[in-house]
Automatic annotation (TrEMBL), chain A:
GO molecular function: 3-oxoadipate CoA-transferase activity
Keyword field contains Cytoplasm: no
InterPro entries assigned: CoA_trans_fam_I (IPR004165), NagB/RpiA_transferase-like (IPR037171)
UniProt record similarity statement: Belongs to the 3-oxoacid CoA-transferase subunit B family.
Pfam families for this protein: CoA_trans
Enzyme class: transferase
Highest rank taxon of the organism: Bacteria
Organism: Patulibacter medicamentivorans
Listed name of the protein: 3-oxoadipate CoA-transferase subunit B
Signal sequence region: none
Enzyme Commission numbers on file: 2.8.3.6
PANTHER family: ACETATE COA-TRANSFERASE YDIF, CHOLESTEROL RING-CLEAVING HYDROLASE IPDB SUBUNIT
Automatic annotation (TrEMBL), chain B:
Name of the protein in its database record: 3-oxoadipate CoA-transferase subunit A
SUPFAM superfamilies with a match to the protein in the record: NagB/RpiA/CoA transferase-like
Database matches in InterPro entries: CoA_trans_fam_I (IPR004165), NagB/RpiA_transferase-like (IPR037171)
Domain of life: Bacteria
Record's keyword terms, sorted: Transferase
UniProt-recorded Gene Ontology molecular function terms: 3-oxoadipate CoA-transferase activity
Keyword DNA repair tagged: no
EC number(s) on file: 2.8.3.6
Family: Belongs to the 3-oxoacid CoA-transferase subunit B family.
Length: 259, 286
């Protein structure tokens, strides 16, 4: 018997898990990124090394942890290190291939805000703040961002730059538009390579670094994605339709979440 | 050699009004019992330092014990907002709260510099972020290569309090599981207190164990279950339902105050009642 149809959230998680076919080491926060990485280990990449900010390297959780510091992560890890060691010895030198990050706001060059909505001194909404994100995004090989696709999240202008993505982007010749640029700032990793929303996958244009819609999730349309984006969203010439979740992926995800 | 004192005496000895106080523990081993005792003793105008304020600082900020907060991630991990922290920053309730925020890497470097008695820590960080203009960070050039790096001032709290699994009677402490930033924080402090699940005759070496010699600590106090709803690996488990439930309690000012009155100000143990005597095995909660 086929499983019940996938929800949008399930599809988003499975699309994220599929991106982890070749990475050796992934850095993850809680929520969808964690679920996606655990799922990837279970269904197609058993050698994938999961690294959590709490200092657990090579954690092998069988359940989705509520927090990055759940006991199971430390009990199953290859190594458990202190926070200073995690950032100084593991994140900063670029030993981690891919990092999954979320954010409250993202702009067209994949810069991220997780600090504040409104003015910093008189905030409308005070968010948790940076956590590890700024240095994770500069130190890791690449960043995959997972966010809901709506105009509150995909905005023309961030209220606060917590984490640098592709800065102000490049012009059509590939020249940085300003000093707000990864290379000029000395950031070492490649920065965001994909933004996975609940409608689509956006990827930075190789020349301008502006996010371009390249893939649609099953059931989503270009019009929906345009409507839900706070800037005039660029669409790739050939938009790829993402293959719907297989029964195997969906069943594995549901088993994992139910544990 | 650390002195072993009852928790209330230990807090009375090390924490004073207006102190810069860091209660550390990265998700694991958060010293809730000690923080609650600080509140019961009515300490005020504290500058609270902690990478992840978590529920404990939501409680301390929510009752107005803090004038200032230094932190890097003010959320309820996996659940959402810290509502009391937000209310203080957004509405100044119950009193205005000054903030200084960093990234985790920055805070970790600040503690490591404090422990090393260096004036600042150095890292590749903050570049291009709006944090640079809002916090205490400066750029320096590497004297050897010229590379531009971030310098963050050393953290040297007046008081650091951490929780660990065990100490012996001479106050030598061992913790294991996720070690967070506890060692650096204790060594950066002017005065230090370690609360422990149990006091044992002799410390048995543990895989991944971090040992703090008693002569590097001022005071040790026994506090069984003292990190709940966080946990002490091998002894208690994280009370994830307690973290979820906090979202409801902290959303509403009067529900919060009533909860604090009942569970913190009226009694010594708001979470699980893990009673144990020195040297007796403590029930492992699974």
């Amino acid at each position: 018997m086929s499983p019940e149809p996938a929800t949008v959230g399930e599809i988003q998680t499975i699309v994220a898990a599929r991106r982890l076919r070749t990475a050796k080491v992934v850095f993850i926060g809680v929520g969808k990124p964690s679920t996606a990485a655990i799922l990837a280990r279970e269904i197609h990449h058993p050698e994938l090394v999961l690294v959590y900010e709490s200092g657990t390297i090579g954690a092998k959780p069988r359940r989705v942890p509520l927090s990055i510091g759940d006991g199971e992560l430390a009990e199953t890890a290859d190594a458990v290190v202190s926070v200073p060691e995690m950032f100084a010895y593991w994140v900063q030198p670029g030993r981690i291939d891919v990092a999954f990050l979320g954010a409250a706001q993202i702009d067209r060059h994949a810069n991220l805000n997780s600090t504040v909505i409104g003015d910093y001194d008189t905030p409308r909404t005070r968010l948790p703040g940076a956590g590890g994100a700024p240095e994770i995004a500069s130190g890791c090989g690449e960043v995959v961002v997972i966010v809901p696709h709506d105009r509150r999240t995909l905005v023309e202008r961030l209220d606060f730059v917590t984490t640098v993505g592709h800065g102000d982007g490049h012009d059509e010749h590939g020249t940085p538009r300003s000093d707000f640029d990864r290379q000029a700032l000395g950031l070492r990793g490649r920065g965001p390579t994909a933004v996975i929303t609940d409608l689509a996958v956006l990827e930075p244009d190789p020349v301008t670094r502006e996010l371009v819609l390249t893939q649609l999730l099953p059931g989503a349309t270009v019009e929906q994605a345009r409507e839900a984006t706070g800037w005039p969203l660029r669409i790739a010439d050939a938009v790829e339709a993402i293959h719907p979740p297989t029964d195997h992926e969906l069943t594995a995800l549901r088993e994992l979440v139910a544990r | 050699m650390a002195r072993v004192l009852p928790l209330a005496d230990a807090i009375a000895e090390v924490v004073r009004d207006g102190d810069v106080v860091a209660l550390e523990g990265f998700t694991h081993l958060i010293p809730f019992a000690a923080g609650h005792e600080v509140l019961r003793q009515g300490r005020r105008d504290l500058e609270l330092v902690r990478m992840t304020p978590d529920l404990l600082y939501d409680q301390m900020v929510g009752v107005g014990a803090a004038a200032r907060l230094v932190f890097s991630y003010g959320g309820n991990p996996g659940v959402g907002s810290l509502h009391r922290f937000r209310d203080a920053v957004e509405h100044g309730w119950p009193r205005p709260l000054a903030i200084e925020e960093h990234s985790h890497a920055g805070m970790a470097a600040r503690y490591a510099a404090g422990a090393s008695d260096l004036p600042f820590g150095v890292l590749r960080g903050y570049a291009g972020t709006d944090l640079e203009a809002r916090t205490n960070v400066s750029r320096i050039a590497c004297p050897f290569t010229g590379e531009s790096l971030a310098a963050v001032p050393a953290l040297r709290p007046d008081v650091v309090i951490v929780h660990a699994q065990e100490s012996d009677r001479r106050g030598n402490v061992q913790l294991w599981g996720i070690p967070g930033v506890q060692k650096e924080a204790v060594l950066a402090a002017s005065r230090s207190l370690v609360t422990v699940e149990r006091i044992v005759e002799r410390l048995e070496p543990r895989p991944g164990g971090v040992v703090l010699p008693g002569w590097a600590i001022d005071v040790v106090a026994e506090a069984p279950g003292g990190s709940q709803p966080s946990y002490a690996a091998g002894i208690t488990v994280r009370d994830n339902d307690g973290y979820r439930e906090w979202d409801r309690i902290a959303r509403d000012r009067s529900v919060f105050l009533a909860w604090m009155e009942e569970h913190v100000f009226a009694g010594p143990s708001p979470y699980r009642d893990l009673t144990g005597t020195p040297d007796a095995p403590i029930e492992v909660v699974r």
